């Protein structure tokens, strides 16, 4: 199914990009968390080599939204390292999740 608009009809759409410069952790991801209400919340997160995630102090995401970002980044790192333990995490992530989080 193609993406028709900027905002999802339910749930949320997370779009993150890792900076191309500096391959050493922590990796900086920047993007948006789009909600059905039309708001696109800015996200700046840092992913450490061991999988911990931190956010810029100015981040305005609620606790549940932060948890979704953390879970997505940890899963991406784990998937990248299944084949190669020294692999870098993906440079771009786009995930849609329904209201129930699946």
How would you spell out the order of helices and strands? EEEEHE
In quaternary terms, these chains amount to single chain
Number of domains: 1
* Average predicted local confidence, pLDDT: 86
Radius of gyration: 14 Å
Distance between the termini: 17 Å
Helix content: 10-25%
Question: Could you give a short account of the major beta sheet?
Answer: 5 strands, antiparallel
Global structural class: alpha+beta
Report the total helices.
Answer: 1
Strand content: 25-35%
Given as residue ranges, the uncertain stretches (5+ residues, pLDDT < 50) are: none
Question: Largest sheet, order of strands side by side?
Answer: 4-3-2-1-5
What does this structure look like?
The protein has one helix spanning 63-80; strands at 12-18, 27-34, 40-47, 53-55, 92-97. It has 102 residues and is of the alpha+beta class. It has one domain. A five-stranded antiparallel beta sheet has the order 4-3-2-1-5. The mean pLDDT is 86.
